């Protein structure tokens, strides 16, 4: 075989190895990109897990603080605490279809106002006071039902009454607001008297201030 022919054969084999090298380089590059992406996802998941754990720990500490603040009323069975929401039976606060506080209800709010005010100030939170009713429509007659157009109005008025009472007892007006839910968000069946009694209630829920308000607050 002549030297020229050998040279031609060698020259013909160079592009094959060069192409294989390019392929390997591309594969390594792709693998490196996949590895970087996987590491990035792993870091993102780890950071998300740390954030969720911190949030759960904060929520648990918040509930412990709230339980400690309300230890007296909770021990006496005068209020309930579930998922950060303080529940008071409507019959303790108000007569049937009325928005006027009963003496027992006013005394209970008096006992709650001090611990709640301290808790809200310590944590920089605000208190939502929510009124709820059963699903029976308003009717005229005894108990003042004729004063209210529907359950929405009754629940709103009761929430306002409790809110004003808490303000009178020392909770700053900027740290409490009222909300009405009428017969919505029932916690029991409305098909029997016991269930309807549970649905007639007022709840109070501490919550974070809106972002803009929290930024402006000292």
UniProtKB/TrEMBL annotation:
Keywords, alphabetical: Cell projection, Cilium, Flagellum, Membrane, Transmembrane, Transmembrane helix
Cell division in keyword set: no
Transmembrane intervals: 16-40
Record-level GO cellular component terms: membrane
Location of the OmpA-like domain: 81-210
Entries under SUPFAM superfamilies matching the protein: OmpA-like
Xref: PANTHER family: LIPOPROTEIN YIAD-RELATED, STATOR ELEMENT OF FLAGELLAR MOTOR COMPLEX
Keyword Aminoacyl-tRNA synthetase included in the entry's annotation: no
Pfam families registered for this protein in UniProt: OmpA
The name this protein goes by in its record: Flagellar motor protein MotB
CDD domains registered for this protein in UniProt: OmpA_C-like
Provenance organism: Paenacidovorax caeni
């Amino acid at each position: 075989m002549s030297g020229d022919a050998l040279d031609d054969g060698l020259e013909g084999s160079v592009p094959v190895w060069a192409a294989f090298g390019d392929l390997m380089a591309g594969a390594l590059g792709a693998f490196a990109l996949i590895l970087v992406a996987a590491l990035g996802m792993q870091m993102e998941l780890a950071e998300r897990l740390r954030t969720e754990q911190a949030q759960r720990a904060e929520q648990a500490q918040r509930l412990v603080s709230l339980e400690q603040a309300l230890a007296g009323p909770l021990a006496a069975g005068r209020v309930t605490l579930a998922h950060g929401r303080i529940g008071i039976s409507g019959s303790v606060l108000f007569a049937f279809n009325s928005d006027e506080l009963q003496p027992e209800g006013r005394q209970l709010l008096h006992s709650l106002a001090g611990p709640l005010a301290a808790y809200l100030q310590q944590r920089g939170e605000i208190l939502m006071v929510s009124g709820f009713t059963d699903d029976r429509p308003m009717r005229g007659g005894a108990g003042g039902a004729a004063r209210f157009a529907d359950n929405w109005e009754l629940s709103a008025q009761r929430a306002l009454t409790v809110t004003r009472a808490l303000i009178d007892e020392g909770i700053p007006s900027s740290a409490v607001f009222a909300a009405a839910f009428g017969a919505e968000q029932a916690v029991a069946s409305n098909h029997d008297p016991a269930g309807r009694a549970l649905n007639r209630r007022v709840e109070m829920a501490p919550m974070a201030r809106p972002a803009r308000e929290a930024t402006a607050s000292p």
